[in-house]
Each structure stands twice: as C-alpha cells, then as structure tokens.
Amino acid sequence: MKSSLIIEKFIDTYKLNNLFSKENINLFNLKKYSKGENILNAKDEVKHIYFIVSGGVDIHSFLASGRGIFINKLSPPEIFGDVEYLGETSMLFDVIANSNNTLIMSISFKAIETHLKDNSQLWRFLGVASTRKLLKTNSAILLKEGFNLKNILALHLVENDHLINFKSLNELSKELNVSYRNLTRIIKFFTDSGIIKKDRKSITTLDEKAIKKYAKEI
User: Fold this and answer.
1) Domain 147-216, what architecture?
2) Where in the chain is the domain with CATH 2.60.120.10?
C-alpha cells in the first residue's frame, strides 16, 4: 500500500480528521522499524512529532544512579516528540521499536508551524498527550525510587481489579520497572503466602485484604 494511503487510513481510523485534512497528508513521512531498533536517543535534537501507525515503542531512561528504567510502552495511535516540541528541548528518553512491524509516521515542526499553526484542535491534542505522558513518567520514577516491589506489585493488582495478564514475565518486569529476578522472587513470596495465584500468563489475587494492605503502604 502506498504511504499516502496508509497515512490517510490511519487518520480516518483514529478520527484525527479534525487535526489533519487530506491536503495535509503530503506533510508526513512514513518509516518502518525492526524490533530493538532505536528510533531516537536521549539528548538527540528532535525535529518531528511521531505517530505510531502499527507495532509499538518502548520508552527507556537512565537515572542519575546509572540504573535503567522502563518509562512507558506506546502503541497506535500514540505519539512521541510532542513533549520535546512544546518544551523546546532535546529528546528526554530513548525510544526503541518493540516489534518488527513498527510503522511510524512523522511531521516536522517546521511543517506544523507553516501549515497548522492556527489549528487550535491540534494544539489541544498535543497539550493533552504531553501532559498525560509527563504524569505517567513522574509516577514511574517515583515508584521505582521510593517503594519496594511488594508494594508496587500489590498496587498493580489492585488497580487492575486483582487480575494481571501479561505476555511474559520479562515484559511484566519492564512494565513494573524491576528486574526479572526480583519479580519472580516477589511472586514466589506472595504465592507461598497464599496471597496470589500465578498461572502461565496471569496473576490473580486470592487474598484481597492482604494485597490491599501492601498496596496502601504506597
């Protein structure tokens, strides 16, 4: 399928017609990335806003202590580069493709300012998207730095109605910003205590009172 048709379909599918008209389609570029490929690195100069058309990306950072931290996982139709655009700053985090069919469309800051500067709906869209991401980033860092894994896993269970589904424990460990080894250790602790039940790709709360007690410590 031609790039212009893919972009037009994306805009129609996610009802972004109030942001971009058919005449704006030629302002976008489309590029495919493979799993593990870096799209942007922290401190890179950012010149575009990026829309995830298919696949997805992982956002990573490194704390002052040198420890790596998983910040966020983005999927269609989420965007990145918006925080840096509005804040007039270099790239804050590493952005890495997490699947082999990751397709990204981008529009340059210059094109936005030349053709879309009077589009109030676009500016509102960018403001909401960037604020949500900043709040999630702050939450991830605070949890990583301030609380132990028992509390974090318990809170995650409570927030997900006592059922966590995952593709792999490695993926869950990234989502919780902990090591695989520490995650399996805490799962064993809760399982042996009769507080949770772990199946192949899910974790279920058995003792809601106990898990809520751990969650309340946050």
Assistant:
1) Orthogonal Bundle (1.10)
2) 3-145
Where does the chain hold its CATH 1.10.10.10 domain(s)? 147-216
Phi, psi of 120 (to 5 degrees): -65, -30
In whole angstroms, what is the distance from residue 216 CA to residue 59 CA? 28
CATH topology of domain 3-145: Jelly Rolls (2.60.120)
Per-residue pLDDT of the chain (218 residues; tens, 9 = 90+): 689 999 999 999 999 999 999 999 999 999 999 999 999 999 999 999 999 999 999 988 766 556 667 778 899 999 999 999 998 999 988 999 999 999 999 999 999 999 999 999 999 999 998 888 887 776 666 656 546 788 889 988 998 999 999 989 988 887 887 778 889 999 999 999 999 999 999 999 999 999 999 888 65
- The H or E element containing residue 163 is strand 163-165
pTM of the model: 0.70
Instruction: List the structure tokens of 124.
Output: 């509102």
Q: Are 152 and 178 in contact (CB under 8 A)?
A: yes
Q: Give the angle subtended at the CA of 131 by the CAs of 126 and 132, to the nearest 5°.
A: 105
Q: Round to whole Å and give the CA distance between 6 and 98.
A: 20
Q: Which parts of 28-163 fold into alpha helices (H)?
A: 82-87, 109-115, 120-146, 149-159
| 8 Å CB contact between 175 and 73 | yes
Give the separation between CA 51 and CA 104, rounded to whole angstroms. 6
